[in-house]
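Researcher: Structure prediction, please.
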Amino acid sequence: MLAITVPGRPAALSILLSVVLAASGCTVAVAPQGSQTQTAARPVISGTPQKAPADKNFATIVARVEPVAEQVCRATPPARNCDFRIELDRDPSKPANAYQTQLANGQPLLVVNQTLLNDLRNADEVAFVLSHEAAHHISDHIARQQSTTEAAAIAAGLAAAALGGTSSTIASAQELGAFTGSRAYSKNYELEADSLGAQIAYHAGYDPVDGVAYFSRARDPGDQFLGTHPPNGDRIRVVQQTMARLTRGQ
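Model: Predicted structure follows.
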């Protein structure tokens, strides 16, 4: 068990949250070197794809990745909106970023900004980034993250109340619980999206192993407790393992 200390929060809340986490089983599993990660989704498309053009053209890559992502989305229960909208944010002042969200009508939106696109060296890397973001939607990570956050906040608030906490202490416990819950499984979600994203990119005609090589150059977040992203080495390894299974026909 790890005690969590957050600046500006009473020590009692840190102890309380440690108890809540232990009771709710909020752990982050990272695949050790040489093992097969449990985050890998089963392939839903069979066959060997036709190799995509090597040109790093955003529109061309979108035209190949989007239909594959939609096919995987529709083949993965439960039913959801699989009409992906993919955009390039051309504002050069923004730091490198890619993300997925949902519009008010439930349509999934994937965004890559120009700064990140400039950092990506080839079509394989662009395709992997798009496929990774599509995989977040297919895996329902927004809804799952919200559920985890709400559950942790409720559990922390109930525990604080049971210990005789004041309304202020309960509110603080709920806030800290929500913070922790939002990060409890985020590393696993990233690895899940890497694995499924590798399959999408592969079936779109790109090389995910070359695509994930971006993380050999990107800043490594390390294995920080309550961090939102796993170490870059784990992400590269997950993609390599996924592709080894996929190319063996498993």
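Model: The chain has a mean pLDDT of 78.
Researcher: Thanks, that helps.
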